[in-house]
Amino acid sequence: MVQIQITLLGRFAVTVGGVPVAGASWKRRHAAAIVKVLALAPGRRLHREQVIDLLWPEDTIAGAVPKLHKAAHFARRAIGVPDAVVLRGDQVILCPGGSVTVDAVRFEELARLALAAGDAAAVREALALYGGELLPGDRYEEWAEPRRRAAPAQSPGPAAAGRPLGGGGRTRPGRRARPSRPHAPARGER
Questions:
Q1: What are the angstrom distances between the C-alpha of 7 and each of 32, 63, 81, 102, 170?
Q2: Under a CB-based contact definition with an 8 Å cutoff, are residues 152 and 110 in contact?
Q3: Most buried one in 40, 62, 66, 103, CB count within 10 A?
Q4: Which distant-in-sequence residues (6+ apart) come within 8 Å of 161 by Cβ?
């Protein structure tokens, strides 16, 4: 069984059997995006229409299905594992035959358990896994925003202080607010 480590905190990286996947291997933006989306999904799987809605929200299902297949192909190619991204029926699954560790998921699990137990040593152990902001290279991708808001921490400060992790999506120190989009005046409103 192949060991796959996916890093989403502070940067995006994939390691297969202890060997890092070169950044140049990610030739297509959506190949990396499908891996990121599935890595954060419960059980590392989503219905194909959920993936399509996240990555190609403007496309019809018929128009997006070939893009999904192409993204899965390029993700498998980048990772170098034949079943890295599997389309089975209506499901899209990340590495169903591999042992996968996702740093963000592991950090959230450890932080939640440590805070629930009130164990300072366990909090320090969780903080040791914290590599930085969740998906910093995808800061303005709409598909990443719900998970970013739900992430227990974007900085280790609250956990270190023993406060609950979270923040409800408000801007955190060191992170600029998302720029607002200019309002286009309605017809006849000029």
A1: 12, 31, 17, 6, 24
A2: no
A3: 40
A4: none
Domain positions in the chain are 3-100
Q: Is 177 exposed, middle or buried (0-12, 13-18, 19+ CB in 10 A)?
A: exposed
Classify the C-alpha dihedral 50-54-60-65 as positive or negative.
Answer: negative
- Separation CA 55–CA 61 (nearest Å): 11
At a CB cut-off of 8 Å and minimum separation 6, what does 124 contact? none
Q: HEC states along 120-140?
A: HHHHHHHHHHCCCCECHHHCC
| Helices 29-40 and 61-79: angle between axes, nearest 10 degrees | 90
List, for residues 135-171, the tens digit of each pLDDT value: 999 988 988 888 778 765 444 544 443 433 333 333 3
Model pTM?
Answer: 0.78
What DSSP assignment string belongs to 25-80?
Answer: G--SHHHHHHHHHHHHSGGGEEEHHHHHHHH-TTS-HHHHHHHHHHHHHHHHHHHT
- CATH fold group of domain 3-100: Arc Repressor Mutant, subunit A (1.10.10)
What pLDDT shows up at residue 147?
79
Give 93-143 pLDDT, tens digit per residue: 999 988 999 999 999 999 999 989 988 888 898 899 899 999 999 988 988
User: Are 75 and 35 contacting, i.e. CB atoms less than 8 angstroms apart?
Assistant: yes
